[in-house]
């Protein structure tokens, strides 16, 4: 059993504060200024990390989609052109890196192809997040394992056998698994939160939750069920153009989520029955027969 994994200065595992990841992804819409505003939201909420996505568009974009027309805020363009339009490169990530250090928050990203792993290594990313779409990309998983960095593995749209193979490829030493269902937005009947316990028992590593539901309840319930990390997409405005905004939390919602997670942490207790100080006055007033 791996008790905890260290990312930056934080430990992720049982007995440690829930590790909250603000998934910015592509919700910056290609704007570093938007990214900085979202980093500010994460910091205000008390998240320990912000996460982006890194692609080499020529490799990561499926062939059948490259020439597909896409309506964008910059006009009609091919899907491949759009992917380049919203992709951050070294200059943007250098600015993000400096801003995160100034704000005291960790950043990392989900690489979607092997050259993106090399890119993130060049930026000295502190950890790697493997997106649900990449669970079966064993070449990339082997490349990520070779970095020796902590790895967070999302498990949406995957069979248990595919997860078995991914875990075998990555090893368990520096691994965190996130239960996820990759429906956007996520309906409650597909959340399957009891998988948190299943994954803990099967793999013996820290297990968290990556959510795509519109509200807060399911993520809060995940913490009550033992999730040691929670990842949620954040946006400045759910009505903004882009594919992930509608399944994201706006600033007020994300701040509320982080507040509620910390309350749930305190409320869980240690499972040992005791008489608490706050009960002493009612005890002396209300109990008629001592036992």
TrEMBL record:
Provenance organism: Demequina mangrovi
Upper lineage: Bacteria, Bacillati, Actinomycetota, Actinomycetes, Micrococcales
Sequence ranges assigned to domain PseI/NeuA/B-like in this UniProt record: 38-273
Any Pfam family: NeuB
BP terms from Gene Ontology: carbohydrate biosynthetic process
Gene Ontology molecular function, alphabetical: N-acylneuraminate-9-phosphate synthase activity
Protein's UniProt name: N-acetylneuraminate synthase
């Amino acid at each position: 059993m791996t008790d905890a994994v260290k990312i930056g200065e934080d430990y992720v595992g049982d007995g440690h504060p829930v590790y909250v990841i603000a998934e910015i992804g592509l919700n910056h819409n290609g704007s570093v200024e938007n990214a900085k505003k979202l980093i500010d939201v994460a910091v205000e909420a008390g998240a320990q990390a912000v996460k982006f996505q890194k692609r080499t568009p020529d490799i990561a974009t499926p062939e059948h989609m490259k020439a597909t027309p896409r309506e964008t805020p910059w006009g009609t363009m091919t899907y491949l052109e759009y992917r380049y339009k919203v992709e951050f490169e070294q200059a943007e990530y250098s600015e993000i890196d400096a801003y995160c250090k100034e704000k005291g928050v960790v950043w990392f990203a989900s690489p979607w192809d092997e050259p993106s792993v090399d890119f993130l290594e060049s930026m000295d990313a502190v950890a790697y997040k493997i997106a649900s779409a990449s669970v079966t990309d064993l070449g990339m998983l082997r490349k990520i394992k070779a970095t020796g960095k902590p790895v967070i593995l999302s498990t949406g749209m995957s069979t248990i056998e595919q997860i078995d193979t991914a875990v075998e490829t990555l090893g368990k030493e520096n691994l965190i698994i996130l239960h996820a269902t990759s429906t956007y937005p996520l309906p409650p009947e597909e959340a399957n939160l009891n998988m948190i316990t299943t994954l803990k028992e099967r793999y013996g590593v820290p297990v968290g939750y990556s959510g795509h539901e519109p509200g807060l309840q399911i993520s809060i319930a995940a913490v009550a069920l033992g999730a040691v990390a929670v990842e949620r997409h954040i946006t400045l405005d759910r009505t903004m153009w882009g594919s992930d905004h509608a399944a994201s939390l706006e600033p007020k919602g994300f701040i509320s989520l982080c507040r509620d997670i910390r309350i749930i942490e305190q409320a869980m207790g240690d499972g040992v029955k005791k008489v608490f100080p706050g009960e002493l006055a009612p005890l002396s007033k209300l109990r008629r027969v001592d036992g």
